[in-house]
Amino acid sequence: MSLAPRAVLVHRTTEYEELVARHGTHGQAAFFLSSRGRDIEEVAERHRRARRALAEVTAAVPLNWRQALLERADLDRFLFAPEDVVLVVGQDGLVANAAKYLDGQPVIGIDTDPGRNPGVLVRHRPRDAAALLASAGGTAEELTMVEAVTDDTQRLVALNEIYLGAPGHQTARYRLGLDGDRGVVEAQASSGVLVGTGTGATGWLRSVWQERGGTLPLPAPTEDRLLWFVREAWPSPATGTSLVGGGLTASASLTLTVESDRLIAFGDGIESDALQLTWGQTVRVGVCGRRLRLVG
């Protein structure tokens, strides 16, 4: 007998909840904000909207389905199942946070605060949840993801972008190479390397792309193509600046060999979940074989 689908509702702690947890009470949090020229009511109202949205989406789950409520901080400890339907209730970034832990499960993005969120990934309102759940097994948009794989088989997957560089603000030193470039590599010293997808082209990747004049065409979210940029490459007698940006097709990859005591690679801004890279280690970055299935 097959299991009934499970609705996994992904949410995150609100700013109001974080403030009250830090200061102990609503009154203390209100005093803290007022001393800095802010009104806690603005924060509390956003909290109430988020909780109303989560309650409305929860109520829309069919009675014969199973349910799981999952906070963002617990994503890396949760075991997703093939029959899950994932409802991300919150901001666009929360979809990216969840994407790396999924393997083909359909995702429905619910916007809790229209007008504040761009709505690139959270495209729907809470009132639409019932209809979306009824059709979740149908067609979905297959969004391209990016992955980094080290020579000792560590693997990192991201929806928007992967950053490789030094922790903090130190200079990253490495050797950079491209597939199909006859083995040519360049020693570099920079602020790190950013490799992003078409979905990431609405965020951090786009800001770097604009700074470079926007000469490379941005990939579409479903296109099997990535863009990469070296940030603030430094020319010196030992380091070059000829390889500072380009595109990667599905069959190509960017190779980075570490020449620092420690570099890291992290995805979608989550530095707490990073690959630790040491001297002489090599990491390859390219299009991931997995896709994010975004409904609607």
From TrEMBL:
**Gene Ontology MF terms in the entry:** NAD+ kinase activity
Top-rank taxon of the source lineage equals: Bacteria
Q: Matching InterPro entries, A to Z? A: ATP-NAD_kinase_PpnK-typ_C, NAD/diacylglycerol_kinase_sf
Q: Name one GO biological process term.
A: NAD+ metabolic process
What PANTHER family would the database entry show?
NAD KINASE 2, MITOCHONDRIAL (PTHR13158:SF5), PTHR13158
What is the name listed in the Swiss-Prot or TrEMBL entry for this protein?
NAD(+)/NADH kinase
- Protein species of origin: Streptomyces bauhiniae
